[in-house]
Amino acid sequence: MHLTLDLDSETPIYQQIRDRIVEAIADGELEAGADLPSTRQLGVDLAINFHTVSKAYDLLRREGIIRINRKSGAVVRPDVKQPSGDAGTDTDWKRRARTMLAEADVRGLPKADVLEFVRTTLFGFPDQGGDPGER
Amino acid sequence: MHLTLDLDSETPIYQQIRDRIVEAIADGELEAGADLPSTRQLGVDLAINFHTVSKAYDLLRREGIIRINRKSGAVVRPDVKQPSGDAGTDTDWKRRARTMLAEADVRGLPKADVLEFVRTTLFGFPDQGGDPGER
Amino acid sequence: MHLTLDLDSETPIYQQIRDRIVEAIADGELEAGADLPSTRQLGVDLAINFHTVSKAYDLLRREGIIRINRKSGAVVRPDVKQPSGDAGTDTDWKRRARTMLAEADVRGLPKADVLEFVRTTLFGFPDQGGDPGER
Amino acid sequence: MHLTLDLDSETPIYQQIRDRIVEAIADGELEAGADLPSTRQLGVDLAINFHTVSKAYDLLRREGIIRINRKSGAVVRPDVKQPSGDAGTDTDWKRRARTMLAEADVRGLPKADVLEFVRTTLFGFPDQGGDPGER
DNA sequence: GTGGTCTAGACCACT
DNA sequence: GTGGTCTAGACCACT
């Protein structure tokens, strides 16, 4: 697993690691049940302190995305990507997504471009009926 | 202007106020150039301290979304919703949006539902041409 | 007199007008005792409200840089550019200048470049002994 | 770390704290990566409320000069004093510096004295080669 | 009448 | 032990 970090970003490193792992799971790079590298190993790979990796893993654990076992290390939860049945999760995500879409609009990003970006990110290819990506 | 706050949320109240105002601008409820209520007035309306409102306004000001004048109060910037010409803004937004879409997937929200939610939020009505996930 | 404003800047317009006038006086474009355009005329020239120009003039008046006479309009004070004999003025300027030089250093601007910029701005040409402006 | 404040100044205390810390970093008194005192401790030292210190730290954080960690406190960013690669930063600094140099001139500070002050502040000793204003 | 600043104290998470 | 948040109240300039 390779993660790209931006050490100069305002976003804390442990948060970036958490975000990149969530993206790796969504992309299928990390499957449900898969082992994560040990905190020490990932720390070496990323040239950062393993405590920072631990913080990221702890965050993912508290979010219910991974499981941590002292002996066998961290694994992606087998039931990840499955609807939680908790309506609160969806409601919370939608509220945050609504804010993010509003930000795009307020920043002047055209709505059509935003929708196309979302479609491409989700499904990996642009809409076939007129391709805004080539404008 | 009416804003709904969740006092029990983990999200700070000042951040919620900021988010709700961004959404109100995106929705057209607050137009470019429109007056915002005074910090003390909004504090009374929301039954919170005016300092908390002030913090939200300060955030919006620093983000370039509103202007604050000591005498005449706060207004939505006239040039809001216009592209900044700053590529960094778009890049940053897209990075955050990518993480948010990954979260939806990891939480088990179907991709087609996510796209439909985005389309409806942006354009106010669902797609008329069937399931976009299967094109 | 031509002033260039940045309407999108975070700096208030009246402050920008004030700054540009101070620079025009320093550059000799506006001499001691010279008439300033009327607030209405400058407002038309800059395509802004004349009240904003009035605010800038009022600021300059309070700073002791111009005089405002209801009948004859605004003029650059005849004694501008002359030492005030008030040690506080120098001390205050030096404190602010020290902070600004510290900011350049903290931002990573090379000290030699900063000195060269100051020299060129003050005297209109670079140092003759090695020209950092051509690196 | 000792900071001198002027409680009677028009400049807000939190801004003065911010300015003095920037100067301390430029002077090398505070090195990249160094710990800052806790907000409460510095508040006690300066005999002011810790909220005021907190506001100064928040300003420095948003400027990218320090990092704040809820657990371990505030530290000078390790990459401070390194060019940001953001041309906007330099342009903005130069615009502000130009205004400040114009102010010195308008106030009657001799240009040669201003240049000498800048040189001494930057390099710690005056020019050895005579009057730069006459080269 | 408006926002800005500062003080003071409380409670909170651990980011 | 640290910073973050929120409340409450005072005084200030007019930016």
Automatic annotation (TrEMBL), chains A, B, C, D:
It holds the Pfam family GntR. Gene3D superfamilies: Winged helix-like DNA-binding domain superfamily/Winged helix DNA-binding domain (1.10.10.10). Residues 11-79 form the HTH gntR-type domain. It comes from the Bacteria. GO terms for molecular function: DNA binding; DNA-binding transcription factor activity. InterPro entries: Tscrpt_reg_HTH_GntR (IPR000524), WH-like_DNA-bd_sf (IPR036388), WH_DNA-bd_sf (IPR036390). Keywords: DNA-binding, Transcription, Transcription regulation. PANTHER family: GNTR-FAMILY TRANSCRIPTIONAL REGULATOR, HTH-TYPE TRANSCRIPTIONAL REPRESSOR YTRA. This is GntR family transcriptional regulator. It comes from Umezawaea endophytica.
